[in-house]
Amino acid sequence: MDLRGLANGVTTTVNPNKTVTVRRSTGYTIGAGRKQVPGYAEPVTGPAQIQALDANDIKQLDGLNIQGTVRAIYLRGVLAGVVRPDGTGGDIVQISGQDWLVVKVLEGWPTWTKAAIVLQMPVA
Description:
The structure is a single chain. The chain is mainly beta and 124 residues long. It is built from two helices and eight strands. The chain has one domain (3-119): Thrombin, subunit H (Beta Barrel), CATH 2.40.10.
Protein backbone atom coordinates (compact mmCIF):
# COMPACT_ATOMS: atom_id res chain seq x y z
CA MET A 1 0.00 0.00 0.00
CA ASP A 2 1.35 3.44 -0.96
CA LEU A 3 0.48 5.49 2.14
CA ARG A 4 2.57 8.45 0.95
CA GLY A 5 0.63 8.52 -2.33
CA LEU A 6 -2.70 8.41 -0.49
CA ALA A 7 -1.71 11.19 1.90
CA ASN A 8 -0.32 13.30 -0.94
CA GLY A 9 -3.57 12.93 -2.85
CA VAL A 10 -5.45 14.45 0.06
CA THR A 11 -2.98 17.21 0.97
CA THR A 12 -2.60 18.48 -2.60
CA THR A 13 -6.26 19.56 -2.60
CA VAL A 14 -5.30 22.19 0.01
CA ASN A 15 -1.57 22.62 -0.61
CA PRO A 16 -0.44 21.76 -4.17
CA ASN A 17 2.91 20.06 -4.73
CA LYS A 18 5.81 22.21 -5.91
CA THR A 19 8.39 21.17 -8.47
CA VAL A 20 11.78 21.04 -6.76
CA THR A 21 15.32 20.27 -7.82
CA VAL A 22 17.49 18.21 -5.47
CA ARG A 23 21.28 18.36 -5.46
CA ARG A 24 22.68 15.51 -3.34
CA SER A 25 25.87 16.29 -1.46
CA THR A 26 28.91 14.27 -2.56
CA GLY A 27 31.32 15.74 -0.02
CA TYR A 28 33.87 18.44 -0.66
CA THR A 29 37.22 19.26 -2.18
CA ILE A 30 39.82 21.71 -0.93
CA GLY A 31 39.94 24.91 -2.96
CA ALA A 32 41.95 28.12 -2.94
CA GLY A 33 42.97 29.27 0.52
CA ARG A 34 42.42 25.73 1.85
CA LYS A 35 38.66 26.34 1.89
CA GLN A 36 36.22 23.48 1.58
CA VAL A 37 34.29 23.56 -1.72
CA PRO A 38 31.08 21.49 -1.56
CA GLY A 39 30.37 18.97 -4.33
CA TYR A 40 26.98 17.85 -5.59
CA ALA A 41 25.64 15.07 -7.82
CA GLU A 42 23.67 15.85 -10.96
CA PRO A 43 20.39 17.58 -10.04
CA VAL A 44 17.13 15.64 -10.06
CA THR A 45 13.74 17.37 -10.46
CA GLY A 46 10.35 16.21 -9.19
CA PRO A 47 7.29 17.06 -7.10
CA ALA A 48 7.41 17.67 -3.36
CA GLN A 49 5.07 18.78 -0.63
CA ILE A 50 6.28 21.79 1.40
CA GLN A 51 4.63 22.41 4.77
CA ALA A 52 5.13 24.19 8.07
CA LEU A 53 6.76 22.24 10.88
CA ASP A 54 4.45 20.65 13.43
CA ALA A 55 5.08 20.63 17.19
CA ASN A 56 6.90 17.26 17.13
CA ASP A 57 9.21 18.47 14.33
CA ILE A 58 10.02 21.61 16.31
CA LYS A 59 10.90 19.46 19.33
CA GLN A 60 13.29 17.40 17.19
CA LEU A 61 15.02 20.57 16.01
CA ASP A 62 15.13 22.13 19.48
CA GLY A 63 18.70 22.43 20.67
CA LEU A 64 20.24 22.36 17.18
CA ASN A 65 20.42 26.17 17.18
CA ILE A 66 18.77 26.41 13.77
CA GLN A 67 17.65 29.90 12.89
CA GLY A 68 15.90 31.35 9.89
CA THR A 69 13.01 30.20 7.73
CA VAL A 70 12.42 26.49 8.31
CA ARG A 71 9.94 24.22 6.53
CA ALA A 72 9.18 20.51 6.25
CA ILE A 73 9.49 18.80 2.88
CA TYR A 74 7.92 15.49 1.89
CA LEU A 75 9.68 13.98 -1.11
CA ARG A 76 9.73 10.66 -2.91
CA GLY A 77 13.31 9.49 -2.61
CA VAL A 78 16.09 10.02 -0.12
CA LEU A 79 17.40 13.27 1.37
CA ALA A 80 20.27 13.67 3.82
CA GLY A 81 21.54 16.30 6.21
CA VAL A 82 25.16 16.28 7.34
CA VAL A 83 26.60 12.75 7.48
CA ARG A 84 29.93 13.17 9.24
CA PRO A 85 31.27 9.62 8.71
CA ASP A 86 30.73 10.00 4.94
CA GLY A 87 32.14 13.53 4.87
CA THR A 88 29.02 14.84 3.16
CA GLY A 89 27.14 18.04 3.89
CA GLY A 90 23.42 18.62 3.64
CA ASP A 91 21.60 18.17 0.36
CA ILE A 92 20.30 21.30 -1.36
CA VAL A 93 16.67 21.58 -2.48
CA GLN A 94 15.89 24.36 -4.94
CA ILE A 95 12.33 25.67 -4.71
CA SER A 96 11.20 28.56 -6.92
CA GLY A 97 14.78 29.68 -7.48
CA GLN A 98 15.71 29.60 -3.79
CA ASP A 99 18.17 27.20 -2.17
CA TRP A 100 17.08 25.32 0.95
CA LEU A 101 19.54 23.22 2.98
CA VAL A 102 18.46 19.87 4.44
CA VAL A 103 19.36 20.16 8.12
CA LYS A 104 17.62 17.09 9.57
CA VAL A 105 15.81 14.04 8.29
CA LEU A 106 12.61 13.88 10.33
CA GLU A 107 11.32 10.61 8.82
CA GLY A 108 13.14 8.29 6.47
CA TRP A 109 11.33 5.49 4.67
CA PRO A 110 12.36 3.27 1.75
CA THR A 111 10.36 5.28 -0.81
CA TRP A 112 10.06 8.78 0.71
CA THR A 113 11.60 11.22 3.16
CA LYS A 114 10.35 13.98 5.42
CA ALA A 115 13.09 16.49 6.20
CA ALA A 116 13.56 19.90 7.80
CA ILE A 117 14.94 22.46 5.33
CA VAL A 118 16.29 25.97 6.00
CA LEU A 119 16.28 28.82 3.49
CA GLN A 120 19.78 29.84 2.45
CA MET A 121 20.76 33.44 1.83
CA PRO A 122 22.07 34.20 -1.68
CA VAL A 123 25.85 34.51 -1.93
CA ALA A 124 26.81 38.05 -2.86
